[in-house]
């Protein structure tokens, strides 16, 4: 039995995934149409990737120790998401609907 991941579930909700796709398209089109903005975005993206890798490297021991607590929190969040999906059917539709 594969452990559900609440973040993956949220990202798979049509309302969330369609919003992310729209934002990604706007970001890409802005980068393509404005050369100065593209260079600023590339510097920012490299910085975020480097900071993210460094943060993950530094957090790894902590994450390993807190894994049981993360599993409990993830299970509770998944149950909460089940409840939200039942109560708010609009989460199952893309933003434009």
TrEMBL record:
<dbReference type="GO" id="GO:0006629">
    <property type="term" value="P:lipid metabolic process"/>
</dbReference>
<protein>
    <submittedName>
        <fullName>PLIN1 protein</fullName>
    </submittedName>
</protein>
<dbReference type="Pfam" id="PF03036">
    <property type="entry name" value="Perilipin"/>
</dbReference>
<dbReference type="InterPro" id="IPR042998">
    <property type="entry name" value="PLIN1"/>
</dbReference>
<comment type="similarity">
    <text>Belongs to the perilipin family.</text>
</comment>
<dbReference type="GO" id="GO:0005811">
    <property type="term" value="C:lipid droplet"/>
</dbReference>
<keyword id="KW-0551">Lipid droplet</keyword>
<dbReference type="InterPro" id="IPR004279">
    <property type="entry name" value="Perilipin"/>
</dbReference>
